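Lecture notes, unit on protein representations.

Consider one protein chain, 159 amino acids long.
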Amino acid sequence: MIEAFVDIIFPPVQESLSMEVLQYKVRPKKRLPKRVLFERVRLLDDQSADNVFSGFRPVARSSDLLKASRAKRLLQKRETQKGELKASASESGVDLDSDNSEDELSETLLQDRAKESPFRVIWKDEEHQCLIVNLCKALAYLGRYWEALEIINFTVRLA
């Protein structure tokens, strides 16, 4: 009876706890708007080689130039990703003619990548906490100490 309980409950609980622990570690990058990136790239365009002061130190600081070059690479990367998204969207039959299509498409791709955990917010209810405690007791009774310790560690990380 205890083995059946553990065999049924352990895999989804372990999967949901591990997914929740991993989600807390991942922080989304701060995404700069295109207008800010274009302003930074404009700084690179202003410093042309045919300028009278081409041999002198640039007017902009080195940190600003570094940001501008990073912004230029990021814009190029976004354009290639946008082209790939359009190609994959045209294969799947999604219309990309609207202005918001880039945002909508990126949101749908992120939602597809994000996997739902079997038990959402398992550690917040008192009943679910009792379930986790009973599962750990059953695992210890069966001699599966490593799996019980894994569940305990996941729960402690989330608390």
